[in-house]
């Protein structure tokens, strides 16, 4: 790939992943009680803390990924969070038959998103990022 495309495509990749996380984090703030209820319905302990963690990761780290700030660590944490969310909330192996396909698709989408995040963890944010400006 020509070097001229690396920075714009890396920025676009960060934007496309952030589009998933940032609005979801805002939604969890706006519907905090519903988020806590959803976490509770999956039998997880400390649902209020879980909701706060979800907001911090999705909104806070999502914005950090978008801007390319501390990208490698941010992406690694987000990848771990995304795999955990897939396991706890899209456990297709325990889903009723009517939900099996949807939960399986969502589980594997989470794994794919984590794969993209791991690429940022390895390669960084690219030249159009806060990380690159801080190195200058």
UniProtKB/TrEMBL annotation:
<feature type="transmembrane region" description="Helical">
    <location>
        <begin position="12"/>
        <end position="40"/>
    </location>
</feature>
<comment type="similarity">
    <text>Belongs to the DoxX family.</text>
</comment>
<feature type="transmembrane region" description="Helical">
    <location>
        <begin position="113"/>
        <end position="130"/>
    </location>
</feature>
<feature type="transmembrane region" description="Helical">
    <location>
        <begin position="46"/>
        <end position="66"/>
    </location>
</feature>
<keyword id="KW-0812">Transmembrane</keyword>
<keyword id="KW-0472">Membrane</keyword>
<keyword id="KW-1133">Transmembrane helix</keyword>
<keyword id="KW-1003">Cell membrane</keyword>
<dbReference type="InterPro" id="IPR051907">
    <property type="entry name" value="DoxX-like_oxidoreductase"/>
</dbReference>
<dbReference type="Pfam" id="PF07681">
    <property type="entry name" value="DoxX"/>
</dbReference>
<feature type="transmembrane region" description="Helical">
    <location>
        <begin position="73"/>
        <end position="93"/>
    </location>
</feature>
<protein>
    <submittedName>
        <fullName>DoxX family protein</fullName>
    </submittedName>
</protein>
<dbReference type="InterPro" id="IPR032808">
    <property type="entry name" value="DoxX"/>
</dbReference>
<dbReference type="GO" id="GO:0005886">
    <property type="term" value="C:plasma membrane"/>
</dbReference>
């Amino acid at each position: 790939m020509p070097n001229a495309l690396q920075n714009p495509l890396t920025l676009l990749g960060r934007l496309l992943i952030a589009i998933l996380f940032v609005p979801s984090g805002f939604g969890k703030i706006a519907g905090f009680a519903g988020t806590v209820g959803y976490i509770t319905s999956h039998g997880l302990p400390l649902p209020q803390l879980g909701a706060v963690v979800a907001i911090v990761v999705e909104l806070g780290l999502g914005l950090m990924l978008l801007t390319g700030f501390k990208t490698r660590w941010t992406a690694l944490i987000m990848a771990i969070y995304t795999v955990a969310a897939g396991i706890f909330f899209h456990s297709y192996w325990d889903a009723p038959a009517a939900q099996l396909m949807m939960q399986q698709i969502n589980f594997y989408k989470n794994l794919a998103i984590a794969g993209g995040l791991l690429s940022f963890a390895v390669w960084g944010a690219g030249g159009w990022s806060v990380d690159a400006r801080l190195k200058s």
